[in-house]
Design brief:
The protein is mainly beta and about 250 residues long. It has three domains: about 10-55, OB fold (Dihydrolipoamide Acetyltransferase, E2P) (Beta Barrel), CATH 2.40.50; about 70-200, Nucleic acid-binding proteins (OB fold (Dihydrolipoamide Acetyltransferase, E2P)); about 205-230, no CATH class. Helix content is about 5%, strand content about 35%. Strands 8-9-10-12-11 form a five-stranded mixed beta barrel. The longest helix has 13 residues, at about 235-249.
Length: about 250
């Protein structure tokens, strides 16, 4: 056993004992057979129950670390290229009062390819995630699943709450900025935000021949006959087609 006793002040990561001596309880976790402190506080040993805990300075129990499949609510404190750091505030609908952090790797955000975490979540976003590995600090999280993901996001320009339009497309009603997030199926609902599919970004539409329907209006496009006037006979491309028909006649 490490040289610790009841009443000793510890910080997260301090080694307390081995699992054969005492089992982890509140404010502690086990990794490779060794029990560590998960939160700052005072050591409390229960020799009758053969357990060890870390309590706050008032002797109150700290919430134990998340376990696999726990549903967690947290705030994104940092978003990097390949990962994001999450400050956990709720665990299975119970408030978390001690400093517990989680981490999401980019591979645990979505099954589609994502180049950067900034494309799916950003700082101050509120997310709902699930614990997938609790044998280390910070806890490994995932947001893959319809009920998981960002549940509230703010505009990176003006700070106004973002409105969901369609899929993962977000729109700011204040400054009209558009951003993307990997959202949960109930994004914004508990915060009084309603989805606005009428504000979704417009997409190109093509006719049955594969032509961009906007080419006739403004010219240009993806095809060899693009020009001013597009496929109509009014544009430069149209005059070329008229000349070709005259030659054939």
């Amino acid at each position: 056993m490490a040289d610790v006793k009841s009443g000793d002040i510890v910080v997260p990561g301090d080694q307390l004992c081995v699992i054969e001596e005492l089992s982890p309880s509140y404010g502690t976790y086990e990794n490779d057979g060794i029990v560590y402190a998960a939160a700052p506080g005072a050591v409390s040993m229960d020799l009758k129950q053969r357990s060890i805990s870390v309590l706050d300075t008032d002797g109150n129990m700290k919430l134990a670390l998340p376990v696999v499949d726990d549903i967690l609510l947290g705030e994104v404190v940092n978003a990097y290229e390949q990962r994001a750091e999450i400050a956990i505030v709720r665990r299975n609908d119970e408030d978390v009062h001690s400093g517990i952090y989680g981490e999401i790797h980019i591979s645990n955000v979505t099954r589609r390819f994502v180049k950067s975490m900034h494309d799916v979540m950003r700082g101050t976003d509120i997310i709902r995630a699930k614990a997938i590995n609790t044998h280390k600090i910070p806890t490994e999280l995932t947001v893959i699943g319809p009920e998981l993901g960002v549940i509230l996001a703010k505009c990176s320009r003006c700070g106004n709450p973002l409105t969901l339009t369609t899929y993962n497309n977000m729109f700011c009603l204040r400054c009209e900025n558009r951003e993307n997030r990997e959202v949960a199926s109930d994004y914004g609902q508990q915060f009084g935000l309603e989805a606005r599919p009428d504000l979704a970004p417009r997409r190109r539409s093509y006719d049955r021949d594969g032509y961009d329907q906007r080419d006739d209006r403004r010219g240009g496009g993806r095809y060899d006959d693009r020009s001013r006037g597009g496929r109509s006979d009014r544009g430069r491309g149209g005059h070329d087609r008229q000349n070709d028909r005259r030659r054939r006649n």
